[in-house]
Amino acid sequence: RGKMSVGDAKKLVRSPSGLRMVPEHRAARSPFGLDEPPWVPDKECPRCMQCDTKFDFITRKHHCRRCGKCFCDKCCSKKVPLPRMCFVDPVRQCAECALVSQKETEFYDKQLKVLMNGATFFVTLGTSDKSELMVCRLSNNQRYLVLDGDSHYEIEIIQISTVQILTEGFTPGGGNTRAIGMILQYKVPGSEEVAQMKFTAGEDFSCNRKLSASWLAAMHKVSK
């Protein structure tokens, strides 16, 4: 068990790269966050680090907000959202970084929202033969997996060591499978002990099975 003792309050800060909305307390940072990279000093990049074009009064240099390297406008023209660095607006990135950030934006817009909305599972602790019906969701600051039923648990995401998705419906020909559960292993705070939880989507109650499957798929992507 754990406690979310740090608030979710945020503040607006201005960096050389742009405006960022960051947690007031560093301890409340999302485990998916990235620090801003140091910029390559102007004096160390007389040429574009992608196409080798020489910089002059006409060809100006620009820094990619994700990698900090120096490029010409042609090689660093895309402005793409960068939620992992908490930027308020899309920021300039090189082509390679922009591609990564675009994929991550989809992750933030879809998978994380699914996880924060939550889903219902039967949860079994360790080797127990008893399970408890619980609502499972990701906390607003993305730092904890919160489980609520008759009991209450909060597992810090960075303490999770293994996520195994359980499926059914596999056929040798590669037929469709569906996620029906998950085995989660995590380190118990303050010890070297590894605990385990098993999550199973219910067959005989009114929760939305499709929602549970979507939640499990999102959790699988988080683990990657």
UniProtKB/TrEMBL annotation:
Domain FYVE-type: 42-97
GO molecular function, one term: zinc ion binding
InterPro entries in UniProt: FYVE-type_Zinc_Finger (IPR052113), ZFYVE21_C (IPR032031), ZFYVE21_C_sf (IPR038632), Znf_FYVE (IPR000306), Znf_FYVE-rel (IPR017455), Znf_FYVE_PHD (IPR011011), Znf_RING/FYVE/PHD (IPR013083)
Signal peptide (residue range): none
Top-rank lineage group of the source organism: Eukaryota
Keywords from the UniProt entry: Metal-binding, Zinc, Zinc-finger
PANTHER family: ARRESTIN DOMAIN-CONTAINING PROTEIN D (PTHR39490), ZINC FINGER FYVE DOMAIN-CONTAINING PROTEIN 21 (PTHR39490:SF8)
Name of protein: ZFY21 protein
Gene for this chain: Zfyve21
